Amino acid sequence: ISKPDRLDIIINQGMSFQYIKQRYLFTYVPNLIVCLAYSIMIDSSVQAAASAVVEPRWKKRKPNPSPPSFSSLPDVIILNCLACISKSYYPILSLVSKTFRSLILSRKLNHARSYHKTREKLFYICLQLPDRPLPSWFTLWIKPYQTEEENMKKKKATLVQVPSSYAPKEPLLVRTVGSDIYALRQRYPPSPFMLVRNKERYIWRNTPNMTVARVNPAACVLHGKIYVMGGCNANKSAKSWGEVFDTETRTWEPLPDPGDELRFSSVIRKIKIIRGKLLVRSNDEKDSVYDPKTQGNEWKHVKGLSSFNRSCRRGLIKTVEYCGKLLILWDKFANCEEEKTICCALVALEKRQNGQVWGKVEWSNVVLTVPTPNIFVCFTLMLHSSVQAAASAAVEPPWKKMKPNPSPPSFLSLPDVIILNCLARVSKSYYPILSLVSKSFRSLILSIELNHARFHHKTQESLFSICLQLPDRPLPSWFTLWIQPDQIEKKKATLVQVPSSYASREPLFLRRVGSDIYALRQRYPPSQVMLVRHNENVLWSNAPSMTVARVNPVACVLHGKIYVFGGCKANESAESWGEVLDIKARTWEPLPDPGDELRFSSVIRKIEITQGKLYVRSNEEKDSVYDPKTRKWKATPKAREGDSRCMVGNIYYACRAKSCMWYDKECNKWKQVKGLSSFNKNYRSGLIETVNYCGKLLIMWDKLAQPRLRRNCQEKTICCALVALEKRQNGQVWGKVEWSNGVLTVPSSYVFLRSSVIRT
């Protein structure tokens, strides 16, 4: 649907007008990643596609619950996404909705851009137009990502009147003194205020006020002092037409009166510092200099611009450095003598080996049409990070008839790096919905680059995965718990089969040794490869390979060594069924053979370390224990059925058939968790696993899908609950069930193999 010629196909399918309007609009707004997904999910046919992600293959597909509304997405996520997007897209994004526009206009977005260091330079000019009593500010809007063919037909840039969706208000006149930035307001009414902030912070504070209220003054910094001139009535306060602020003593002092002839009543264009003197430029007949002393330097002609120079020989307004390039502004008469067109060009400069400077015009076009008797007042170039009004009022000046905006660029024109950085800040719980946008968008969600971006931005989340052996599949299957965002009445979570848009691949089996993280693969085909990376680095490297290829092995760390068991055929290599990696020597050694009785052929569930011994838990009749000191294996009784333990916040918890317990280290007793009496009745049997999930207790159990059938029931429902824990002042631990529901329906003969919690 990213092409206009496919809109008729959407209409023929009988979709609602509201759906067509939203889907058509959002598809052409490339930066609106999250809002795009929500609007697309309005149609029921797309909802049916989402259900394929959730339900297992042997179940009849059911319609997915309707996705959350746009307002359910936290504002902080949207603001962080917008902060990483170029401001050139803001006029387009402001048309999405009133809610979205209010976020674009908010001051919090300024702070987010400052925090992420994504502020951009904006070029402003101030013009005195004949039909307006006050000067008017305009901003240069360079439109995003236009191809060379589009440049031939459409103009690349335009002057946007302030306020607009590209620039919310008149720019501040900013001057830097040391580590502080001082600012003067350039809008009406006149004001004596001056603001200051530190370079590293975005919060402005007040400084001592000027002695005279000013509007559109000029200022410069010389020897740590701020000189301010003009912006007030020339005859009203002759002594305060110019004044100076001492940043050390924080006091204002008036400058000497320049006299009636040089005390300009018009807006000062700029103050130029030449050899320690202040040269004041204005639109009056004369300029003035405060303690003048100048000396000219030699100028050289810039090569390669002969044809361009002919087009702007007259009417030159301004040249300024813009993002390391030369921005040239000039005017010329339009078709009639009553109007002029202001033109602009961006020139890239290059100094070549022969000492000559060459220029290349990147773009050049008309940016504004104004009445003939106009006066260029001043210009400002500043780092800016805010937006304010509607884009429709931003393109054309008010005295010209409004024309429709050119169609925004297609979704694919947005660079992948921007999309990835936006997605990295969005919770993974939204990925199954976002993956339905398009194939290109889904490929980005499944890419490794997105994992790297999440690691870089420190937005990784914990994922809980389980491995099941299903009777109709020869290989074990992995499922990941997808906690759906902001669901209240409908079910909160479901188990999503791997791979999916929520979990693109089987989880790695991770173990940490010091500052390094070691990983084993848990997918087919079997592999000898072990990976390693530093905990501050996202890139994996190869560790010494195991002696036997394994799949779904289990590992643990004891005394700086990594013990690996299983994952290979029990009779294939008896000597290498278990092996140990010495981290310092970087060598593998085989462990003693546990014998045919204890050499499990099934997938090992987990290894528990107790008193320096390794207890290997499996799904077979017996468990085993290995003592590294004596290098001997022994059989050990299996853990009590329905007993699963984990640690949450330095407290051990154990979930049993009829209760949830916690271990009190002070009195060495197991005590019952309060507040879960009604919940405990729901899982009297069939407890599968309890794990620490984001500082909370995640409990998983199964039950018959149709309890009335009992023996004849061929399906079970795996259920899951998330319990928040709190230790109160009386020493008791209380639990609160945040949500609880069925997450997957499986054949009753399934086998639970293991679980895993990793951050990704």
UniProtKB/TrEMBL annotation:
Protein name per its UniProtKB record: F-box domain-containing protein
Gene3D superfamilies referenced in this protein's UniProt entry, alphabetically: Kelch-type beta propeller
The segment(s) forming the F-box domain are 73-113, 414-454
User: Which superkingdom heads the taxonomic lineage of this protein's source?
Assistant: Eukaryota
